[in-house]
């Protein structure tokens, strides 16, 4: 069955985009990653064969949620460098043919943002308060929150201020939600978009794109919204704070700005329903929207086949490419997730006392999954360290944890620190060469040095060289823009993508088809393709 036809044109339709989390990528100073660190590694990034980088927030921020709490959208946090460092990074990346996408965080500001400080110091009902969601509480003396909404990070979504009013925060209390009904908020963000476009960025990854509009009546809602899964129960009434129809109007107006710079936008929208998610990539809105159904799929032939077919179906319906992704800074790293008893979106972090992933099995599946993803027409995102096959850190001491989910759930969830460990660059150096002093802001697990880039560069069979080969072949064969035909069997995924046949096995081995030879595979293939393997084949 033909799932999609070849596409051409805009670069983002087939781009491979590498996510960089500045804090743990490379430090040039004291053990916290920084922008000069990223700039120093541009040749490495270029050697991977990616088209663009997406850089997680580097703006001025108290770092309560690792930069997703922005206090100044037009400057760089001193932890990471200066505006000049950012300009230099963008220019040097562009010189190497790498586009730069920056993160935009429009749902909330930091509580240290000048707007929120002004709101706190202004009376009830004032204009500064109207940039956020301030409300009176319920109960006799307003001592109860205005609604029963829960924060995504755990606990109530409202915090009370001195004069008795409450403000809304769908995430941490240090991240007050902006009121997008207010035209001033809209104007401010349009100006922020232009600020960064004028500095040469090629696009934006838009944080919590499904959350900006709230039902202004603020009705109660009796459900929790998980960070990673969204809402899994279709019988639940539409949430008053997520995926509201009115949110799309914002993106239509952004699109006209972004188009005038020939830039793009990618939505982070944890919308469970694939058809509703595709609305974000209608022709006059986002160019891309992360395919979180794919990321959340269990490692099973039927599940992946269905997700892939459904993704093409809904996105073809609006003329958009699909944006494949398995990893980011919010989920357990893939080799660990794939080595758990239950594969799929995984838990929110893993403790040393939890059942530990089977790393060998997880790695085998993760490489098969990666090679499947990189064959699929559309765009694909890789998360820094994914090319090294890094596992999740599952034995972090609690004292080291920083994720607000760990604190707000009172330790019920370990949180996301385990996928944010400083990267290993040089095996023989302290801190695996992450910083000149050997310091790392988060401890690295035992064995981390063995994953270092220098070790993997020297090993033709390393995960790093495997990803490089895959990206080179993907590009040579135009896989990102090819048509795809699904000829899967009951046990095995089998796609024809342009001239490349892509076979993925699960619990059962498969025969290598006659007349086809392997050009790349995630485990060695003879006449048989072993279990949990992806192979790319061409006609003999
Ligand atoms: C997004 C980010 C996540 C952050 C949250 C609040 O989901 O990916 O890291 O904590 O938004 O900004």
Termini Cα gap: 23 Å
- Which small molecules are bound? alpha-D-glucopyranose
Task: Tell the overall outline.
Answer: globular
The radius of gyration over CA amounts to 23 Å
Record the strand order, biggest sheet.
Answer: 12-11-10-6-3-2-14-13
What are the main properties of this structure?
binds alpha-D-glucopyranose; 21 strands; 540 residues; eight-stranded parallel beta sheet; alpha/beta; 15 helices; 15% strand; six-stranded antiparallel beta sheet
Question: Care to give the gist of this entry?
Answer:
By secondary structure, the protein is an alpha/beta fold. It has helices at 22-25, 35-40, 42-48, 83-95, 114-120, 183-198, 247-260, 274-278, 292-295, 301-318, 334-337, 359-375, 404-408, 453-457, 463-476, and strands at 2-4, 16-20, 52-55, 59-60, 72-76, 99-104, 134-135, 158-160, 166-168, 203-206, 264-267, 288-289, 323-325, 379-383, 484-486, 493-497, 500-504, 510-511, 516-521, 528-529, 534-539. The chain contains 15 helices and 21 strands.
Structure description:
This protein is α/β, with parallel strands linked by helices. It is 26% helix and 15% strand. The strands form 5 sheets. It has an 8-stranded parallel β-sheet with strand order 12-11-10-6-3-2-14-13. A 6-stranded antiparallel β-sheet has the order 1-15-16-17-21-19. A 3-stranded antiparallel β-sheet has the order 7-9-8, with no helix packed on it. Helix 6 (183-198) packs parallel to helix 7 and helix 12 (359-375) runs parallel beside helix 15. It starts with a strand and ends with a strand. Bound molecules: alpha-D-glucopyranose.
